[in-house]
Amino acid sequence: MDNNKAIKKEQKVFMTGNEAVAWGALAAGAEIMYGYPITPQNQIMHTWARLLPQFGRKFLQTEDEISAGFTTIGGVLTGKRAFTATAGPGHVIMQDAMSMAEMMRLPVVFIIQQRGGPSTATVIYSQSELVLTTHGGNGEGMRIVYSTSSHQELFDYTIKAFNTAWKYRYPTFVLGDGYQAEMRESLTIYDPEARGIKMVPAEPYVGADGVPGKDREPLQLRNTYNTEEELYEVMSGNIKNFKKITPEILEWQSIEAEDAEILIVAHGIISRASHGAVNNLRAKGIKAGLFRPITVQPFPDEALRKAAEGKKIVIIPESAFEQLATKVKRGMYGMNVPLDAFSMPGIGITSEEIEERVIQVHEKQMVRK
Amino acid sequence: MGSSSRIIEAYIGEFACGKSEIAINRALALLKESRRVTIADFDLVNPFYTLRPLIDKLESLGLKVIATRTEETIGLGEAGMIFTPQLKWVLRHEGDLILDVGYGPDGSRVLNLIEGIWQNPELKIICVLNIAKPITSDVKLIVEYIKGLGRVDAVINNSHLGSETDAEFVQAGARIVTEAARALNLPLLYSAAEESIAKEIGRYDCMENPVVPVKRYMADAFW
Fold first, then answer.
1. Assembly ipTM
2. CATH number, position B179
3. Which of A156, A166, A177, A268 has minimal CB crowding within 10 Å?
């Protein structure tokens, strides 16, 4: 129904990151959000709930995040473009449902606005949910995770997450954080179809048309297996397929990396601070570059290796303790490039701090020479 | 209004419309006229993201600030907001009062908590509008939005795109907000714009509303 189109014409707007997510989901044609309040994602729910009567969408507030995760799965099984959003300890208890979506390969979209951890910790900000998002639950990381760094990206990747999820049928995550959630900045909101982005249609798993076995393949919706061998066979298939689609999914940004002597590897909002640092360092004559994984699962190992080749050192700033650094180490295994983990768990890192760290490392390198 | 009468203004509107900036700038402008001014933080909707980080700065500029410091809420968890007697009895404070209120209809309902507020003849509830918020981006939407807020006595055009604002955007806001204010029969007090843009536009915007230059303070609010 055209009335349901949330954005009729492209518009430059000024809003919080949470609002950008809600508008992205509206623009993507998401039909229902399930959720349970937790800072710093509350405004996604507030905004969605306020706007839904206007655009004929739905919202269910559940009793907790366990329920929010599973009801979102229920929505997806009935063929709805459904999503939820959470953070921190809520994210932890939602992992049960996330694992189920992974086991059953369901196109559920999860928005994560990271806050300080472990446990309840702070409501403010961190990057401590990186590993939880990519490899949480008792699964194998068969998930697709986009790490955003601006409001424009929160909007763009929320739309994209629905398409990735429904095209490849793996749970798909938009990984933001408390700063992005609450910061205010301008962005352009648009109707994806007007930009030539075709939304992958959602379709029901249960109650689909036709007779199973006759008109369509019979569907076995299972998250329980009787034998090790049975589970192994299913998981091997999921993993094989995940590897096959990985090259199509991988996204990264390489900024001034080619001729750089020092490479910064950062994701999310810290990649933005790092970009600022690279500009300042270049102005001072220090050859710094930036590699930013946008998909943090799957991880762009090959592109990272290429960017890191021949560098004097790779510096990894993150608002967590060696969560990204571990992924970088894995990706760069065997390369003869030293790594410097710049871990600041639960706290923001400014361009100036990154710049200072690079200068320190640079001076040490000069001495070694 | 004689200069002896006191000014009580409550600022409401969407989040990120610029309520707090407008409230701070107004309070400081009154201070310049050698008035006694108190600014009070009434954002109970999203208490973590308001005037808190600016308390010291605003006090150093000479304002009396009623707001909860983060360290005072320790132990209350993420929804930690203390509704203090100072807030409940805010009308007893002498001098002018600038109230920075939370967003949306629930935000303005907070005023119900203030003792004697609806009996106060001096109170003005002012809605700050930014056409860059999709929910208040055209005349029809603004009219619906304001009708949903309950009592509103005046509006301000604070249309902006953060650091990407230009004079044309402020003027576009002036056209839309003026038309909406006329439809609602509400006074439009002024168009607000950052100092350099205000200078570019001149004393009046394209709809003959006064232009008031504002300084940005909230950019320092690094939570």
1. 0.84
2. 3.40.50.300
3. A166
